[in-house]
Design brief:
Length: 239
């Protein structure tokens, strides 16, 4: 039984993590791998220097915007779960949700590097496609760092309420339909309020934006469906 006070208190929506930039050398290395270099040993020094220089302008020009909303899960089935009147269709996450025990919640979140990240990609591409490519890659890895921090922070908020969490999952990944899940999330937590729009196909603008879901409950027997999945998938979770 969830009281109104608990529903309002479990997450107010006004708090947020204090996002930290990654260590610069780690950020640069991750970006170089993201750009397709197979290893870090054979990259020319001038490329590394260029990535480092551009990382300072990414730091200066962008800042993460974040929001989230938590509500009780309405119901769970083997084919998905219901939240806020929407059915999230997913056999893989439906099985995870069906095994949750006790009080159950769903958190939707959205994070973006903001409109400037998008404007700068266009501006820099006009000067140099190489610079634009590096800018884009630095923004992608930075967005991933920030969303990892957001996931940890959300888990901590639930933990303070005696709840455990699943890993995060996003529209278009695993077996979640991009457009259907994206519409549900936009209806649930209003990412437009931090400047994120979706196109007719479900892609987000600014592109350096991530939306996702996390399930929470008193008992979470499985944090992701990856252990029992045989697909060759680069998004496999190890915990
Ligand atoms: S390995 Fe990939 S497809 Fe399989 S459950 Fe994990 S995220 Fe989903």
């Amino acid at each position: 039984m969830i009281t109104l006070r608990e529903r309002m208190d479990i997450f107010s929506g006004h708090r947020k993590p204090s996002f930290q930039l990654p260590k610069r050398d780690v950020w640069i290395e991750k970006t170089l791998l993201h750009m397709g270099y197979p290893d870090l040993d054979h990259i020319r020094a001038e490329i590394k220097a260029m990535v480092s220089d551009i990382s300072f302008s990414v730091e200066k020009e962008t800042a993460p915007l974040f929001l989230f909303q938590s509500e009780p899960l309405e119901s769970c089935t083997e084919n998905g779960f219901y939240m806020h009147g929407f059915h999230i269709k997913s056999q893989k996450w439906g099985k995870i949700s069906s095994r949750l025990e006790g009080r159950k919640f769903v958190c939707c979140f959205a994070l973006t590097l903001g409109a400037r990240s998008e404007e700068m990609i266009i501006e820099i591409n006009e000067q140099s496609l190489m610079y634009g490519y590096i800018w884009d890659a630095l923004c992608s890895t930075l967005t991933e760092y920030y969303v990892d921090q957001a996931e940890e922070w959300i888990a901590l908020q639930y933990m303070k309420k005696g709840l455990s969490v699943t890993r995060r999952f996003s529209p278009g990944y695993c077996d979640l339909d991009l457009l259907q899940a994206q519409k549900a999330i936009f209806n649930f937590c209003n990412p437009e309020s931090i400047g994120i729009r979706i196109s007719a196909s479900g892609l987000m603008i600014p592109r350096k934006s991530i939306t996702g879901l996390i399930l929470a409950a008193e008992k979470v027997p499985l944090r992701s469906p990856c252990n029992s999945c045989n697909r060759d998938c680069k998004h496999r979770r190890i915990s």
